[in-house]
Amino acid sequence: MVQKAKILLVDDRPENLLALEAILSALDQTLVRASSGEEALKALLTDDFAVILLDVQMPGMDGFETAAHIKRRERTRDIPIIFLTAINHGPHHTFRGYAAGAVDYISKPFDPWVLRAKVSVFVELYMKNCQLREQAALLRLQLEGGGQAGGMGDTREPAGLLAELSARLAAVEEQAEALSKQLDDESADAAAVATAAHLERKLTGLRRALDALEPGTNGAAPPFPSQN
């Protein structure tokens, strides 16, 4: 059974959290509530999340400050953040959201279908990335054990695992390319485009590592790139 992704919902109003849960329930993922920036940061200390939906206007630590803390932590800095706001102060306010590290900035009331579609893209990328990491770990065990999976019950040859891992990576690369095109089509801020570019750089590093493991490649294979 594939483990469900976790989505962090941050809003100080219970009715807004309830509405978000109703919209995103169709994705069949784990929805985690946080009623403040402080509560969100506490949740991020122990759990991994595919995406964060963060309300801008909150008492105490607002969405911008919360996002700044998230982006300063090595563990959480790459988690996509979608800002939700009930007010629109114009381009400057929107730019502040992107500058804080958001990949998107949505004004309320928003289209439930659009929000669900945007969140589903990041959930899909997260799930595929988790599968890649698991497959990479298994491949390393195969290579280190001379073709044995070290008690994991998988007797496939390293070449077979390498081909499967390459196929999984290709699927993620396709998703990343689609995300980049979506950002271009929507004329997203440079910060959002930079987030997509960061993902593509990580995928490029992993692709190079896989290419180095192909039969006939000279030299030792480089380590798999960090997922941080």
Features:
7 helices, 5 strands, 11% strand, 228 residues, five-stranded parallel β-sheet
Q: Would you tell me the structural class of the helices and strands?
A: alpha/beta
What best-fitting shape do the alpha-carbon axes yield?
Answer: elongated
- Summed up, the helix count is 7
Straight-line distance between termini: 25 Å
Description:
- By secondary structure, the chain is an alpha/beta fold.
- It has 7 helices and 5 strands.
- It has a 5-stranded parallel β-sheet, sandwiched between helices.
- Helix 1 (14-24) links the parallel strand 1 (6-10) and strand 2 (30-34).
- The longest helix has 33 residues, at 112-144.
- The protein starts with 5 loop residues before the first strand and ends in a 15-residue tail after the last helix.
- Mean pLDDT is 78; it is low at 148-155 and 219-228.
- Residues 6-123 form the Response regulatory domain.
Offer a quick outline of the entry.
It holds the Pfam family Response_reg. With 228 residues, the chain is α/β, with parallel strands linked by helices.
